[in-house]
Fold:
Amino acid sequence: TAPRVSEVEEMPLPERAELRTRMISLTFLANLTGLPALSIPVKTSSGGPPVGAQLIGPLGGDYTLLGIAWVYELSVDGFNFPSPIY
Structure:
């Protein structure tokens, strides 16, 4: 789960750079290949922060991927978002 924006901004620069490197590693496959990708909230963990899933589609499959996410959102009757993270 990603930290709150305010927590990241308060970190010393080397620690912030390390965190961003780790977070980028979660999305590098889609970024490197140019494939469409999106993240959807799946549930809230026992500690409260949201748990998500990343969906990666085929090249040119942007609308298909958005459609899958939309159908998922409809099937779970929307998402209950936690308080803003800033």
